[in-house]
What does this fold into?
Amino acid sequence: MDEFSFIQSIQPKNYKQSNLIKGIGDDAAVFRPAYQDVVTSVDTFVEGVHFSKETMSAHDVGYRVLASNISDMAAMGCKPAFYLVSIVIPNHWTMEELQSLYKGMESLAQHYHMDLIGGDTVSGEQLVISITIIGKVSKDKARYRSHAESGDVVFVTGTLGDSAVGLHLLLQQDKGQDNTYFIQRHRKPSPRVEFATYLEPLQRLSLNDVSDGISSDAAEIAESSNVDIHIDYEAIPIQSKLTTRFDASLIRKWVLSGGEDYELIGTVPASDWDFVMEAARQSKTEVTKVGIVKQVKGTGPVVYLHEAGKTQVLKKEGFNHLKGDET
It folds into this structure.
């Protein structure tokens, strides 16, 4: 199959977004938003760095790379609408695998009524996928990391560390029945779009997705808002199966810096906490209060971790793409 036949094979037969004027088939796509702000983001995924055939099927890869981008939309408080896929295709990926990869993306896009509206295909030495995602949100309701203020409640969705556990189990080739939950959390994360959009009526809210680990993602909010963030380690939600199976130090590493859970961390005025709890109930999302925002003390901004009666600075940890290792 040549490039043009491949593009034709992945072209949608119909579109879901009513404001799409022109999709795939011209030099660019055209859409016309009405009374909304447009939010866009791009992520690039490289075989051997972000995913591997050792731990994922082609369908899983497609699902997960799009989930990562959708999580960025959730962190901005908006609904995803369109995506474009540029892909570098090596010889060791078959046409069947590539079509399965796109089907993985489409299976998730269907849930959010998203349309694939373009992209590019070239050949190369390793598989590289670059996704541009476009979302929509009511005017002036996009959520920024810079909106945290002293006195705010810090919260997270879901449980943390699950994806890192799933990857650990896959690398150990331990795919037993008891490990299905963690493996699926790694392969097929659930972006928190519904919960984030339920929070739209709030006047002030900061959000970030937990893609690099709470140690890094909390620091991004602290730095953007020029505040200190205090987190209670014992309050961080952890899947109960973890504590009975793994060493405490390993669990701590996964929870604080494992990353790729694609949950949300956010801050909200204490007076709006009941609203957040109602949004959690309506969207069927587990939400946990894990800390508080305070004014900068010292040279800040800093994230402090309170654990076992002691307080320490929580340093950014996790994979650093420029250094190529954990920092």
User: Anything to note?
Assistant: Residues 247 and 260 are 21 Å apart (CA to CA). The chain has two domains: 3-138, 145-326.
